[in-house]
Amino acid sequence: MSENKAEVALGAVVLAIAIGFVVYLSQSTGLTMGGDSYQIRAGFRTAEGISVGTDVRLAGVKIGAVQDLSLNSETYRAEAVLAIQNDVLIPDDSALTITSEGLLGGHFVEVMPGASFDYLADGGEIIDTQGSVSLVTLLMKFVSGGSKE
User: Fold this and answer.
1) What is the extent of the structural domain holding 96?
2) Model confidence over 1-13: pLDDT tens digits?
3) Domain identity same for 58 and 104
């Protein structure tokens, strides 16, 4: 009977760890942002480095997350849907850039606010975007550029 109690206790510990992991995962990926956010759209030439759940930051502060990422078959651009907190208003002439946290760090979407007094509404679109710069592509350009005379 003592073995049965030990198995139940071990099972409870495993279940508690699993629940803690799910809570941590949902908070770190922004999955908890539901009704208190609005959506904006943006098209990128390349969306390398980002995926659903990637942070959207303004001045280094997380203000949202990437909610959906798909390929537009007509323009061949990566179409992103971003969920932004309701209390953050983004000017309609703002720009988006996919930025790296460092040389080996992850990527995030950076909002560079414009100067307009008109703000994006739910479903609005940001036209001025810049995709991420591939480190491998930069290294290849450096290597091939250095060998030319």
Assistant:
1) 35-141
2) 567 888 888 888 9
3) yes
**DSSP secondary structure of the chain:** -HHHHHHHHHHHHHHHHHHHHHHHHHHHTTTT-STTEEEEEEEES--TT--TT-EEEETTEEEEEEEEEEEETTTTEEEEEEEEETT---BTT-EEEEEESSSSS-EEEEEE--S-S-B--TTEEE-EEE-PPPHHHHHHHHHHHHH--
Number of domains present in the structure of the chain: 2
- Residues 68, 94 within the same domain: yes
- Give 56-111 pLDDT, tens digit per residue: 999 989 999 999 999 999 999 999 999 999 999 999 999 999 888 877 778 899 99
> Does the residue 147 lie in any domain?
no
Quote the pTM value: 0.67
